[in-house]
Each structure stands twice: as C-alpha cells, then as structure tokens.
Amino acid sequence: MPLSDVNQVTNSLNTLQLRELSNLSNSVQHINTLGKSNKHASMSSSSCVLGRQGNQNAAALSPEEGIVKLLERTKYTFVQENGQRRYGPPPNWRSEPPPRGCEVFIGKIPRDCFEDELIPVFEKIGPIYMFRLMMEFNGSNRGYGFCVYTNREDTKRAVQELDNYEIRKGKTIGVCFSVDNCRLFVGGIPKSKTRDEILTEMKRVTEGVKDVISYPSVNDKSKNRGFAFVEYESHKAAAMARRKLIPGRIQLWGQQIAVDWAEPEREVNEDIMSKVKILYVRNLMVSTTEESLREHFIRVAGGDANCVERVKKINDYAFIHFKEREQAAKCLQALNDTTLEGSKIEVTWAKPVDKNEVTARQQSTRASSKLMNELVLGKDLSINNSLNPAAMVAATGLLPPLDSTLPFILSSVGQQPLAPYFVMSIK
C-alpha cells in the first residue's frame, strides 16, 4: 500500500499495523523458500538492479544474495509468514521481548527494496530486536514494515534521524512511532446493559478480555451510551476478537454489533506533560454548572479563589485550568473516582493537542462508517454528534474526549484509516 508522504505514513500507522497482524496465519517457511517466491517478482529485472545501485548499502548482488550475506553476518533468524517476512530476534536472546513503545513504523519503502538494504540503515541506530517487512504474494514488498529496537531510547532516535532518510537517490522513507493496540470499540450494545454484563458477555464470546470501559449516558446515568471499549491482554487477542466479531458473524444479546479498533492515544512528551496545569473531568451531570465546578475544585485545592483560572464545561465533561500545577495535582488525587452531584466522576491530566491535527480529525468524520453510526448512534442521540473540534481547540487548546465525538474515532469499514490525534486519557 503506497504512502504518498510522511503525513500519510503517520496517519496510516495504527490501521496498517493492526490490519496486517490480524490477517497473519501460522504457516512458516524458512529462508530456502525465499528464492522461489521471488522468481516471479520484478525485482530481478534490470530496473531493479539500477534502483538498488542507488543505495550504498546494496552491493551489486541480487536481493536473495544480499539477504544471505546479511544473515551470515548477523546470525539472526529469518522466517516468512503469510503476509510478512520476519528478521529476528537476535541470536542467543534469552530475556523478555522489549516493552511496548520500542517499535517504529516504516513507510514509503520502494517495492523492490528489501532487508539487505533496510537493516544496515536501521541497525546504525542501535541493536534490532525484530524487523518485519510486509510482502505481496508476487515477491515485492507492500511499501511498509516495522522495526523493533531493544530499548525506547533507540526507538526515539530512529524516528528523529531516519524519518525522511534517503534510502535511494531521490527516494526517502517515512519513520514514525508504532502503537501496539489492545483495545476494541464495540457499538450497538443495548443501553440497559451494565459494565459487568458487558464484561461477562465479551468474555463468553472472545478470549483474553482484560477489562471493559463503559460510560453512562449523558442524560440518564442508569444507562450506558450504547458502546464500550474492550481491553485485551495482547494485540493478538484483540485482533482475533475483532475478526470473530466482524458484523454479520455474531450477535450480542440478539442485536447486530459494530466492532473496530479503538483509536489509540498518542503519547505526549513527558517534559510537556510534566508542565500541564489543566485537569480533564468526565462523567459530570448535565446540570452541573461551571460555577459549581469552580467552587468545588477551589475548595479541594485549599480555598484560594485565584487558584482556578478558568473552567470550560461541555455536556458531561470539563477542563479545569489551574494557576499552579501543584494545586491541580492535589485535586486530581483527591477527586478522581469521587461523586459530584450524584455522578461518579473521573479526573485526569488533559493532554495538549497539535492544532494542525484538527483538520485531519474533521476529515475523518466524513469517512466514518455509516454502519457504525447507525448502530451506535441510532435515533436516540445520547452523545453530541455536532461538536466542532476546531471550535473546541480554539476555546480550550484541547480536544474533547473519545466518546464525546464518537464518529471521530471510528475507522471506516474497508476505507482509509483515521489520522491519530491527541485525546484525554479514558482510563
């Protein structure tokens, strides 16, 4: 799948990775099948050789010969599965796999560019734990892959130094952080179902369920909003569940459901987050006013009337701007999971957003699945589907929470993936 620029690489990051992983089979082939699979690929043509000559890492060797020499040098394992080739883990690796956050996504890879050209570039950053290149059946690559480093520091360096790297003369690749998504969005849930009932049902029909996140309706706290987020133990478990729950294959409580990947949160630099002085408060009563919120948070912060600079409430969530971070931290610790005016609220740090991403988020609204909107929103709109993210950012410098603008988080079925964006924590 070609990516026309680095922004598209970033926007396609999560969906490309998850779609490929969810389609993997268990069939494994050894390197001795590599030559057979590549005989019909165009990379053996003279134009391929000329292209490879534009890369100083690729000698005057065929891809097969180059990969053999690479493996002789590194002693890494190399296997081919349906849809991808996997290089790694390193020889004699005995410890646990690297933690989440150690993988980068690589896009805009020339279709006749393979591991013998790519790995020497990426290993300059640091030791590679695993490199995966997505493949077509004809032997060419699909234009993207993934590289897992042994630590997060090398991962950050790879993004900084290799994004827009010229892999061949006039050919640059895009490199950005990858996300290991373990959360599914499930829509079409009867609004009378409790969190425990949803959890029990999801455990009955899928394996590896870790948690269920369900929020009460804005107007009726005794009901849910018609959807939930289901957290799984691993990405593999989530991918298998998503495949099983594809619309038309299974019903829950006698109803058709909509299932897709939940939009993962993008990480914000720790230095930036350490300076945030704004709290995000969710699950408020619609009747709760900005003034009552101000008074409540001032009282908990210590009584200084000037400690809260601003309160912005929309529907059932709000942003509380503090003068000092210490005052905000005190309220966060004291008020999270407490009851305010009859509703149990959640309080987290608000995450800054890049305003340039708002346009992408608005565009993705138009691409949202009609099926999902019908199943989740229906005729009883308990969530505000008319919020303007651009106006929200202009007013607060922040984006609404995930479930407040539900259509924004839904990937289109069979269409292009959504652009990632900053959101507030939903846990």
Describe this structure in words.
- The protein is 31% helix and 22% strand.
- The chain has 427 residues and is α+β, with helices and mostly antiparallel strands.
- The chain folds into three domains: 6-177, RRM (RNA recognition motif) domain (Alpha-Beta Plaits); 183-261, Alpha-Beta Plaits, CATH 3.30.70.330; 270-349, RRM (RNA recognition motif) domain (Alpha-Beta Plaits).
- The strands form five sheets. Strands 1-2-3-5-6-4-8-7 form an eight-stranded antiparallel sheet. Strands 10-11-9-14 form a four-stranded antiparallel sheet, sandwiched between helices.
- A hairpin with a 2-residue loop joins strand 16 (308-314) and strand 17.
- Helix 1 packs across helix 8.
- The model is unreliable at 1-50, 360-396 and 400-427 (pLDDT under 50).
- Its main location: cytoplasm.
Task: Give a summary of the structure in a few sentences.
Residues 102-180, 182-264, 277-352 form the RRM domain. Helices cover 31% and strands 22% of the residues. It is an alpha+beta fold and 427 residues long.
Span from first to last CA?
34 Å
Please name the CATH topology of the largest domain: Alpha-Beta Plaits
Shape: globular
Calculate the mean pLDDT score and round it.
Answer: 76
By oligomeric state, this entry counts as single chain
As a whole number of angstroms, the C-alpha radius of gyration is 24 Å
Number of structural domains:
3
Helix percent reads: 25-40%
Briefly, what CATH class of the largest domain? Alpha Beta
InterPro entries: HnRNP_R/Q_splicing_fac, Nucleotide-bd_a/b_plait_sf, RBD_domain_sf, RRM_dom
Protein name: Apobec 1 complementation factor
Keywords: Cytoplasm, Repeat, RNA-binding
Pfam families: RRM_1
